[in-house]
Amino acid sequence: MRKRVETGIAGIDKMLYGGIPEGNDVVVAGGPGSGKTLFSMEFLYRNAKQGEIGIFISLEEDTSMIIENATNAFTDLSDLKQLIDNKKLVVYGTDKTGMYMQREAQTSSYTFGKFVTAIESLIETYNATRVVIDSVSLIKLLIRDPFEYRTVSMNLVSVLRRFNVTSLLTMEIEAPDREKLVFLPEFFVYDGIFVMYSGEAEAGNRVPSIEIVKMRGSAHSYATVPYEITPSGINIMLLNERKL
């Protein structure tokens, strides 16, 4: 049986019956503002607390903004900045990744090839066991050719698997409601899928919820449960655990 990697987000680990199988690459999909980035950052934070070095690679925000947003949202995680300063949690924003994201005529494969190579180098440099990439949707936006996009995605997954890192990759979905979820072709490249929804309650207020759609190599709950973003982290509200 493969080792389980706890996310450190208690409700999710219960829904996974212990955690993510080690080495799996998992998509965290959701609409804008659903908390994908914060969810992924907390995963790295909780694992860094256990001695597992993680790397947060952003294709959308610079390093200082990522750190500022995380520390402002998770004010109770007082040692988050210290873990970052001590390189137990490495943040690599667009001020560092931007050089790999330039799209030039007839050179996009080479450019993204350098990006995948850079990730490989970072994993080796920091001896990382956890990786977050935020967000792979930008790669799809910049690569219009479906075959080329799939090739880059598979190369990225190949690197992550070769190093046996457990990874989260955030992805934007157009419809934030469960009833409108469309399974994108790239979903099937990855080992697991978490979807963060922004449903509407009867009173008209949006109540976010999360579902584990897929997790290769593991049984898991199929319940869709509400969550909230609190100063101490993501709170998964398991209202009726016997249904998990």
Would you give an account of this structure?
With 244 residues, this protein is α/β, with parallel strands linked by helices. It has a single domain, classed as Rossmann fold (3-Layer(aba) Sandwich). It has eight helices and eleven strands. A nine-stranded mixed sheet has the order 5-4-6-7-3-8-9-10-11, sandwiched between helices. α6 runs parallel beside α8 (146-162). The two termini are 21 Å apart. 41% of the residues are buried. The mean pLDDT is 87.
Report a brief summary of the structure.
This protein has about 240 residues and is α/β, with parallel strands linked by helices. Helix content is about 35%, strand content about 25%.
**Lateral arrangement of strands in the main beta sheet:** 5-4-6-7-3-8-9-10-11
- Supply the CATH class: Alpha Beta
Mean pLDDT across residues: 87
Total of DSSP H or I helical runs spanning 4+ residues: 8
Please compute the radius of gyration using only Cα atoms: 17 Å
Question: Which sheet architecture does the biggest sheet show?
Answer: 9 strands, mixed
Number of β-strand runs? 11
Q: What CATH architecture do you see? A: 3-Layer(aba) Sandwich
Query: Helix and strand string, N-terminal first?
Result: EHEEHEHHEHHEHHEEEEE
Percent range of helical residues: 25-40%
What do we call the CATH topology? Rossmann fold
